[in-house]
């Protein structure tokens, strides 16, 4: 839009966005991922550009993003000594620097910290960024090649990132822990433990009910035995059997 002033100021947004997988830079219109770890499929996004003039004009377009599992083995994890909210704000610039220094098209798959999502996104000084790269032929670059090139360009990458973050930056390739547990796995384990406890409590309850019924039954049998100490005369009247009558000799 060649207009000047507010008429030339464009802001971008995701229309009716109810997904958490994507976000958009409102100033540049660049779409980036928030969390796609372990997910596949096609996502349908609708993007709106709006000027800020008095008579606000808008335009929309649709973007389809297809995610497959072919990149799962070639994802590289980069650790930055920056708060996650700072990295989030500069995702577009981070992608630009990595693409420029690695000489490949770099995509950011996931940005996260070791803190739980419920905690403040500025509460940790280490942020992990999962990336994958494609060459000029649009072929996926192996993780080993990405790691090798990253280590070669590590100093240059850090220098460029310091300009963006206005702070000293250390960037390093790290291997994800082999025994790391995803939130989904942890939730499954907790749910399984709760179900097991519920089952045990139910079985204990059933055992107590059965025992109680058994005691009641025994009590009824004793009472019935006491009642049977009385017998009836032939004429129908009751005769006590509990104490024999004395007869005169």
Automatic annotation (TrEMBL):
Give the record's keywords alphabetically.
Answer: Calcium, Membrane, Repeat, Transmembrane, Transmembrane helix
Gene Ontology terms for molecular function: beta-catenin binding; cadherin binding; calcium ion binding
Highest rank taxon of the organism: Eukaryota
Xref: InterPro entries: Cadherin, Cadherin-like_dom, Cadherin-like_sf
Q: Which Pfam families match?
A: Cadherin (PF00028)
- Cell compartments where the protein resides: Membrane
For this UniProt entry, which segments traverse the membrane? 185-210
Q: What is this protein called?
A: FAT4 protein
Q: Which organism is it from?
A: Halcyon senegalensis
User: What is the gene called?
Assistant: Fat4_0
């Amino acid at each position: 839009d060649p207009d000047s002033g507010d008429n030339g100021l464009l802001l971008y947004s995701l229309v009716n966005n109810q997904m958490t997988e994507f976000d958009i830079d409102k100033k540049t219109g660049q779409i980036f991922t928030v969390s796609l770890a372990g997910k596949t499929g096609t996502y349908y996004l609708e993007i709106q550009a709006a000027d800020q003039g008095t008579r606000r004009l808008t335009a929309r377009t649709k973007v389809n993003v297809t995610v497959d599992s072919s990149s799962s083995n070639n994802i590289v994890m980069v650790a930055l000594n920056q708060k996650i909210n700072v990295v989030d704000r500069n995702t577009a610039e981070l992608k630009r620097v990595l693409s420029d220094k690695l000489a490949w098209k770099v995509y950011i798959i996931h940005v996260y910290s070791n803190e739980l999502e419920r905690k403040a996104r500025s509460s940790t000084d280490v942020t992990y960024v999962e990336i994958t790269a494609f060459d000029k032929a649009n072929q996926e670059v192996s993780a080993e090649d990405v790691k090798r090139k990253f280590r070669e360009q590590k100093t240059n990458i850090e220098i460029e990132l310091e300009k963006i973050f206005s702070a000293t930056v250390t960037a390093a390739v790290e291997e994800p822990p082999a025994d790391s547990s995803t939130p989904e796995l942890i939730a499954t384990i907790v749910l399984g433990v709760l179900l097991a406890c519920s089952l045990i409590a139910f079985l204990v309850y059933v055992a107590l009910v059965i025992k109680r019924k058994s005691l009641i039954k025994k009590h009824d049998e004793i009472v019935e035995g006491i009642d049977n100490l009385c017998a009836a005369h032939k004429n129908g009247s009751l005769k006590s059997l509990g104490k024999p009558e004395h007869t005169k000799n």
